[in-house]
Design a protein that fits this description.
Largest sheet: 6 strands, antiparallel
Distance between the termini: 19 Å
CATH class of the largest domain: Alpha Beta
Order of helices and strands: EEEEEHEEHEHHEHEHEEEHEEEEE
Number of strands: 18
Structural class: alpha/beta
Bound molecules: FE2/S2 (inorganic) cluster
Shape: globular
Amino acid sequence: MNEPFFALRVSRKHQLTPDIVLIDLVHPEGLDLPVFTPGAHITVQTPKGLHRSYSLCGQPKDQQKWQIAVKRENAGRGGSCSMFDDLLEGDQLQTHPWLNLFELKDQAKFFIFVAGGIGITPIMSMMRHLLSMGKNNFQLYYCTRDSLSTAFLEQLNAPEMVDHVKIHHDHGDLSQALDLWPLFENPNGSDIYCCGPAGLMDSVRDMTGHWPSESVHFESFGISKNTSNENKSFDIILNSSGKRIHVFPDCSILDALRSNGETVSSSCESGTCGSCRTGLISGEAEHRDYVLLDDEKDTHIMVCVSRALTTELVLDL
Ligand code: FES
């Protein structure tokens, strides 16, 4: 994904909850936007210049506007705060063309959607798509802290949607988390789509190990795999020059390369877009991305998020 950014105009920005804003994006000259597929996302350049990916949550066939919802993550790396605080109606937002790493399989017999918090966004586009096709073979389980922090309440309570939605509040208490086991105990031919915090996705992953793997789908922006692993320092060696670069625990390989004047394509910087794919010549990587297939992991690494299990990695740079 190395297409250039293009500008969309922020036509509306309004709050869904105290810390979630819905942002409408239109073509600056009023032209039609491309139709997207449900589950797609865009990568934008925030007002502070950071690249962040957000799922498109509107109706995929709507060519008048694209919609994204952004949750202000106070403990994040600044991208969501910049979108929440600095982006204003009328501003231009630099945007990549949409990309879909969370495709909805239209032909599924039944869809079970599991969303946590802001993870509702790709599911909204999926449900809107199904309803627009005259399909109502889906059920959403939407886990949030409380009603105040629940986005899209109005839309989810609309007559065409309400019978397909179960909202569960845990009030910030893990012991009150929704028990999903009765749902997943017996595989029933449905397709499962899950997006939300790492804990929720881990639970669904654990509970669906006996389901066909092609029926269970996860979206995971901004949540690197294995983030519970402590970051260690290591060296990278550039194969073409033999240059050795140290990667400190609080620094990504991508940032270490940049600091040393090396250029690698990047976009999402969260292991989801595929831009920073780099050849791995030797050493063992700790893969934290959502892009590489199993048979690519010995020979490639996504340098924005992944790290090393060995003391050094030789990269094809
Ligand atoms: S920059 Fe997107 S996967 Fe690395």
